[in-house]
Fold this sequence. Notes:
- There is one protein chain.
- The chain has 294 residues and is α/β, with parallel strands linked by helices.
- The protein has 3 domains: 2-85, Winged helix-like DNA-binding domain superfamily/Winged helix DNA-binding domain (Arc Repressor Mutant, subunit A, Orthogonal Bundle), CATH 1.10.10.10; 90-158 and 268-293, D-Maltodextrin-Binding Protein, domain 2, CATH 3.40.190.10; 162-266, 3-Layer(aba) Sandwich (D-Maltodextrin-Binding Protein, domain 2), CATH 3.40.190.10.
- 41% of the residues lie in helices and 26% in strands.
- It contains 9 helices and 13 strands.
- The chain has helices spanning 2-14, 17-24, 28-42, 58-85, 104-115, 128-136, 200-211, 223-231, 279-293, and strands spanning 47-50, 53-56, 90-97, 119-126, 142-146, 155-170, 191-194, 217-220, 237-241, 252-256, 258-259, 262-263, 265-273.
- The strands form 4 sheets. Strands 3, 4, 5, 6, 9, 10 and 13 form a 7-stranded mixed sheet that branches. A two-stranded antiparallel ribbon has the order 1-2. Strands 7-8 form a two-stranded parallel ribbon.
- A hairpin with a 2-residue loop joins strand 1 (47-50) and strand 2.
- Mean pLDDT is 88; it is low at 243-247.
Amino acid sequence: xxxxxxxxxxxxxxxxxxxxxxxxxxxxxxxxxxxxxxxxxxxxxxxxxxxxxxxxxxxxxxxxxxxxxxxxxxxxxxxxxxxxxxxxxxxxxxxxxxxxxxxxxxxxxxxxxxxxxxxxxxxxxxxxxxxxxxxxxxxxxxxxxxxxxxxxxxxxxxxxxxxxxxxxxxxxxxxxxxxxxxxxxxxxxxxxxxxxxxxxxxxxxxxxxxxxxxxxxxxxxxxxxxxxxxxxxxxxxxxxxxxxxxxxxxxxxxxxxxxxxxxxxxxxxxxxxxxxxxxxxxxxxxxxxxxxxx
Length: 294
């Protein structure tokens, strides 16, 4: 019956018996006979054929929608069972935004590892474009990234949080006394970004053209190195978060970043390919969402 269901899905998807037959590499008469056999097995009509046009019956529409889930689950079970049969290690590849400073990701990792100790986690760090390339080329299964593009239908796009934007600056700076600050007011202060050498120009263009920082840019390899530059009075660092006190003592001050009278907001999302929507990927995405909601 599974093969008949796949034939039925192909007919619905293509809207044509002939195109479905070509896609499934069988004759048109054979695929028609298989659909009829499926209808006899089920005891109800799936398709209406009028004036050479195909349409789903109400029961057929329901069956089609549910069958998509059924086949996806079946194929996932087959893949996972094959992995177990061949004693292959289960690995979940996750891409993490290099400059993100929240604790949600690490808490999700901890929860996932406790729930699935048999699954190894491989973490790749990168900026927005590096993470996008890792996901696009299949080198990771899921990424935690900021949103800089319109959502694509090729991916699952799960908004985890809408973050308020801030800057971190040395508490010794005169700017630290401000209750809010705009990009224009920072034009004479260097902006410190976390980026690999390959991504420095991409990050500079984004923060210059989109966010509006007009001054000099300095770069650090990681978040800790960037904060040390800030503490040393070398410039400010843009950050996102919920505004709660952060654990770096009194050496840094966090100031809301505004445009006009509104604080700048940014989306942070989990992205993964729809054709890689396996059990472990979705489990980790659910745990990540729970951490951001708690």
